[in-house]
């Protein structure tokens, strides 16, 4: 069967389309959806054609397509300079499935429960530093918190000089990654060794040196019963019985950092932004109802998606989706943002209403903050646990009000974050009125 012409889309030069995609990431997508319908084509600088899909059935076909037909790993290749070639995000086919199987035990629900106490300790320490009764920008503070949680719970670092060094160097690397243009392979190649790219390369090499030294020490110690994710990866075995190599583990640790740092910090900042304008939701959360807390988190992740276009998939073999046939070389994207704001799927899609998730679980192909199918984010349970811990403790301590008008989301690398950095005003709750913290509910499925 011959491939069909690509779906219609804007005829603007790729430079102008790239500018719209970067500067107005949600508004631009919304305008294209309104003009061209449920599927449309974008052309971005230095990239193959991107076809955006928004119909639930087409997204189902997309995320369940055979692994040899669509390659999500190749669709995310711009992340390789930081993640490394062994990252589960960048692998495809049987190699991806094997690496994913090695990673699964590290993010199992039981393992996450073991990390709850550490997350609570670090969260309480961070919230102790938050001032009340004055405007506060939360995104940067939440980034510090999520980085600290990853360094302690994922990398397994203890307090000391190595933790301090890695915190500083990884922070610099993550700031560099905020710029989508700087991460494009042609720019990386041209500027290698110079300016901000040279600094990024030096910081990356220094981080690798520390991480490999940490792994050597932990291997020498043997099994000490530590509950961090590094310990699980060190114990993992391939199908032939061989351990994961240091390079594989390094790449997966960096993957956990990149996938779980900015996304969770931004999701939490969006949560405070939404709660500040929803006093009734705050009242329900203050009652300590875990079911309502989970529904609120689901609604935050729907309403303010940090990954608007999760897991782009490169077509390797001709495929028909929704009656339309696509040739090799095209990238297909299931748009989480447009799906989450489709009134046919979510009535009043721009309203913040956690109640919509009280009696109905998020749909497999209509709620996509963690992607879908065999590529669904391995760290979903980790991120959801972080959000529950932070929002539960915050509801015990504070009420939240706006510090200014609502601002459009802005792009940071491949993620979205509040346009004003999550600027709100916190009001201290008197101890007598503070609700009792309820035990953590069962982890959502990952």
From TrEMBL:
Cofactor(s) for this UniProt protein: heme
Transmembrane segments: none
Pfam families in the record: p450
Keywords of this entry: Heme, Iron, Metal-binding, Monooxygenase, Oxidoreductase
The UniProt record lists the keyword Oxidoreductase: yes
InterPro entries from the UniProt entry: Cyt_P450, Cyt_P450_CS, Cyt_P450_E_grp-I, Cyt_P450_sf, Cytochrome_P450_monoxygenase
Keyword hit for Oxidoreductase: yes
Similarity section: Belongs to the cytochrome P450 family.
Protein name: Cytochrome P450
Record organism: Paraconexibacter antarcticus
